[in-house]
Design brief:
The protein contains 15 helices and 13 strands. With 393 residues, the protein is α/β, with parallel strands linked by helices. Helix 3 links the parallel strand 2 (44-46) and strand 3. The longest helix is centred in the first third of the chain and has 17 residues, at 17-33. Helix 8 (196-210) crosses helix 10 (268-277). The chain binds FE3-S4 cluster. The site of FE3-S4 cluster has 16 residues, from strand 9 and helix 14.
Length: 393
């Protein structure tokens, strides 16, 4: 693997211990995956932010790196944390958890990382261009970045994304290369898709089928799929399979299919069956959680319009980025949702907060990704449906 003189000097320790340690991670990764060298990256997104996910060992690792003087060189932002930093008490997060979560965030802040904790950086102005190289970690953000934006990132782990942020480079392999971006499975969508929950159900189905292939979709009309829906599709595929890139004919900037790709059809029956498979409870939820991936301002508006002048029967969270919440505050959506008994929560989500410890056992959602992870990581029974359905359960 070829290193430039500056990269070699980083590896030799001439830029300090934290840079050296980070370069060692990147070089080791590059060797494992056969990279020919490093590629500069314009932004990084760090996963492994919630104390629930990283625990004491993660906190120690970050504090140690911070003590060694680690500083990021490129715009770097965080994945959702385990709580809303301002509203954690309203959410019911235990105080001890909150203290440890704040210590994690303090370590990141001392490295110069933006305190925006979101999996939808592309809704708050961080939108790399077609072909631009970045090092993002959260699986739905990675999928959106590669597929909808046409930028290039591997599905980084927390330490490798942080190492890329500290050094400004990532090893040149995987989705940074043209040859890894073609699709080996074509899904002809015949089912009528109308909502995020429909796209999430398609994603849950397609992710399982894709295995390690990039899926391509035909039959989805441009006018019938907005960015929120493509976000829902990619997130569900990342959770049910390990899909980090997909193409949609006539919509995504790339549409490349390999010769001999398998072709399958997604029919109305498949949609129904997939939606059913994401539901594991027929009893009413204790919590309705919307915003996986983090809600756009349009999605928050939709919730506000549906609950205006009503009282929601269960706890309701709409999870979003802090910057998007500020817009929702200014437009009056937050106060409408609060008047109905709900909360717009920033910097966190239903999957990475300590949901079980907070006493929830049944959660409703409209996200294929959340449905998968609420069941497998949070031990929840799940009610799956469109926003309208789950608000009225
Ligand atoms: Fe984002 Fe949490 Fe879903 S990180 S993609 S809202 S599981």
């Amino acid at each position: 693997m070829e290193l430039t003189s500056i990269q070699q000097s980083m590896l030799n320790g001439e830029h300090g211990e934290a840079v050296q340690q980070s370069m060692e991670i990147l070089v080791a990764l590059g060797k494992i995956y056969g990279a020919d060298g490093m590629v500069p990256v314009s932004s990084a997104q760090i996963a492994g932010v919630s104390y629930k996910t990283i625990g004491e060992a993660g906190l120690e690792y970050l504090s140690d790196l911070a003590k060694k003087g680690a500083k990021v060189k490129i715009p770097t932002f965080l994945n959702p944390a385990g709580m809303d930093r301002e509203q954690w008490q309203k959410m019911g997060v235990p105080a001890d958890f909150a203290k440890r979560q704040m210590a994690v965030l303090d370590a990141f802040a001392s490295m110069g990382i933006s305190m925006s904790c979101t999996c939808t950086p592309y809704y708050i102005g961080i939108r790399p261009k077609v072909g631009e190289h970045v090092a993002w970690a959260e699986s739905s953000a990675v999928s959106f970045c590669n597929s909808v934006l046409g930028a290039r990132t591997n599905r980084e782990g927390g330490p490798s994304a942080l190492a890329a942020a500290i050094c400004g480079f990532t090893p040149n392999y995987g989705f940074h290369l043209d040859e890894k971006r073609a699709c080996g499975l074509v899904i002809d969508v015949r089912a009528p898709l109308k909502t995020n929950a429909d796209f999430g159900a398609l994603g849950a189905w397609a992710g399982q089928l894709a295995k390690h292939r990039n899926p391509a979709f035909s039959g989805i009309r441009k006018t019938a799929a907005n960015e929120d829906m493509l976000k829902a599709l990619g997130a569900a595929m990342a959770a049910s399979g390990s899909v980090a890139l997909f193409n949609v004919e006539g919509i995504t900037p790339e549409y490349k299919v390999v010769d001999g790709a398998e072709k399958v059809t997604f029919a109305a029956d498949d949609l129904l069956a997939s939606r059913r498979s994401l539901t594991s409870s027929d009893t009413p939820p204790q919590l309705i959680a919307i915003g996986c991936p983090h809600a756009s301002i349009d999605e928050i508006k939709e919730v506000a319009e549906k609950v205006k002048g009503k009282r929601v029967a269960h706890q309701l969270w709409v999870c979003t980025a802090k910057e998007t919440k500020e817009k929702a505050d200014a437009l009056g959506y937050t106060s409408t949702i609060e008047a109905a008994g709900g909360l717009v929560v920033a910097d966190t989500c239903m999957v990475v907060c300590p949901l079980k410890e907070m006493g929830f056992t049944t959660t409703a959602c409209n996200s294929g990704k959340a449905a998968k992870y609420l069941a497998s990581l949070q031990g929840q029974k799940v009610v799956y449906g469109d926003v309208e359905d789950i608000l009225c359960k």
